[in-house]
Every structure is written in C-alpha cells, then in structure tokens.
Design a protein that fits this description.
With about 220 residues, this protein is α/β, with parallel strands linked by helices. The protein has two domains: about 130 residues, Rossmann fold (3-Layer(aba) Sandwich); about 60 residues, no CATH class. It is built from ten helices and four strands, in the order βαααβαβααβαααα. Helix 1 runs parallel beside helix 9 and helix 4 packs parallel to helix 6. The protein is globular and about 55 Å long. This is DUF4276 family protein. InterPro entries: MADS4-like (IPR059210).
C-alpha cells in the first residue's frame, strides 16, 4: 500500500505539492519520518477546481481507499462568495462528512482548506528568501517595502492583505524572465523554508503528517 494520496484543486496547488516533495530533504522540513511520494501515483487534480473538490472530492478519493494509507484534500476556501456566505468551520466539516460517507475514517485523512487562498502560503514577513525567485532587483528595503509603498502590504501585518494581488503586481514587473503562477509556487515550495509560516491549514497538515509518520531516532 502506498502512503498519502493528495487531491488538489488546480495547477498551482499541484505545482506546490510537486515542488515541496522534489526537495530531497522534505522529511526534515516536515520534521517527520521519510515516506514515499510519486507525482504520478500520489497526486490528482480535480477537473472542476475548488468547487469540484468541495462538492465531490470524496468520490474521487473513494477509489484510493485500498491503495493508500492516508489522504489529503487541498482546497481554497475563497471561491465563489464563500468569504461572505460560508462559515469556514462548516466548510471544512462538510468535506470531512463527505469523506467519512465513502469510507475514509478520521485518522486516515486531513482537509487542508487554505484561508483565504493558496497565495497566502507564499508570503512570509521576511521576503529575502523569495526575492530571487521573483528576480527582484534588490531595491533598498526589499520586496516587502516595495509592496508597502504601493499600498499592497500594511507595515503592521505579517503578510499582504490580498496575497494574490501582491503576487500579480510583482509578476507584472519587467524583472527577469516572466514566470507563471505555477512556476513561482513550485520554486517557493521547493526552495523556501515554511518554518515561519503562520497559516493554520499548512501547520495543521505538518502536524498531521508528523502523527502519521513520526520521527524515528536511531
């Protein structure tokens, strides 16, 4: 039986997972015992993106009950009008209820509902590690100050208020070679430490994987 099957909502999430596990030290970054991951066998993308994952992702994962020990569901909370009309905890519980209905027991799956969206994982208060990925030209004060000057990052906040708008603004600059969102996310996931990440969904996933694969000390 294989280890973890990841169900993701779009190409950016797919690239993020691929990037993270392409780092040979992924087990050290997760602070867990090493396990196998293969993009062809352990990663699937829902054709209907976030609404599809929310509505029937459990049906996609039902066929993996016998082939994988665990499952991770990755979805953005901010699609349609969810931020205005949906309670976050209810959103997560709906997915969990559906997973249970097809046979996944609670200890075998984790729902990573990113609030509000994937871009929030890409930003840290110290932007020095991601600046080379954006080909930032190294202006005084760094990328964080550059975004603050453009009212895209409140100086009292640890991340931009609109993480996606901040990435789009950076991508619109003529700094180096033009990169897609997926290319950026894959590079950041592979090369940048998430140790300072304050996102509850990512930290929750890290903690769950540590439970599934606890470190074994020689």
């Amino acid at each position: 039986m294989r280890d973890i099957i990841f169900l993701v909502a779009d190409g950016e999430m797919q690239a993020t997972v691929e990037g993270f596990f392409s780092n040979n030290a992924f087990d050290q970054r997760l602070q867990c015992n090493r396990f196998e991951f293969d993009t062809k066998q352990d990663l699937i993308k829902h054709p209907r993106k976030d609404p599809g994952v929310y509505q029937d992702g459990h049906n996609y994962l039902k066929s993996y009950l016998g082939s994988h020990k665990y499952a991770v569901v990755m979805v953005d909370f901010d699609f349609n009008d969810n931020l205005d009309v949906m309670d976050y905890e209810r959103f997560c519980e709906d997915i969990k209820t559906n997973m249970r209905s097809v046979g996944w027991s609670d200890e075998r799956f984790f729902v990573m509902a990113i609030n509000p969206e994937l871009e929030v994982l890409m930003w840290q208060s110290d932007t020095r590690r991601i600046e080379p990925i954006f080909d930032f030209p190294g202006e005084t004060g760094g990328l964080r100050s550059w975004l603050q000057e453009r009212n895209l990052w409140n100086e009292t906040h640890v991340k931009p208020a609109d993480p996606k708008a901040a990435i789009d603004k950076v991508r619109s600059q003529s700094w180096g070679r033009k990169k897609t969102h997926s290319q950026i996310f894959k590079r950041i996931a592979k090369d940048v430490s998430f140790r300072g990440c304050e996102d509850d969904s990512f930290n929750g996933l890290m903690q769950q994987i540590q439970i599934w694969y606890p470190r074994v000390w020689a």
